[in-house]
Design a protein that fits this description.
CATH superfamily: STAS domain
CATH class: Alpha Beta
Distance between the termini: 27 Å
Number of helices: 5
Helix content: 40-55%
């Protein structure tokens, strides 16, 4: 898994590529927690480069979303495709979170 973050005004764009699974979800959660500690309240997670996400990855995303919401923040996603889109859909994440096609659309919202 590769993880990058960049500020766009008051929104933090997080780009995740590769895989989010039981092996690397702790690293994902740690990096997101550091961003939260540093004041992140609005996050857009770009998953266009994500090839695979496991149930452990979904739990990691859900835990970060709960932390953000507890601070009155919000999270949205973009770039879902293929298997990742299917997993989000089957798991019920799509109705729970704003999902956009592109980074640009997500940042404008």
């Amino acid at each position: 898994m590769q993880f990058e973050s960049k500020a766009h005004g008051d929104i933090t764009l997080i780009t995740v590529t590769g895989r989010i699974d039981a092996v690397n979800v702790p690293r994902f959660e740690e990096k997101c927690s550091i961003l939260l500690e540093n004041g992140m309240l609005r996050a857009v997670i770009d998953l266009s480069g994500l090839e695979y996400i496991s149930s452990a990855g979904l739990r990691g995303i859900l835990s970060i979303a709960k932390l953000l919401r507890a601070k009155h923040g919000d999270i949205s996603f973009c770039g879902l495709r293929g298997m990742v889109h299917e997993v989000f859909s089957i798991s019920g994440f799509i109705p729970m979170f704003p999902v956009y096609t592109t980074v640009e659309e997500a940042l404008k919202s």
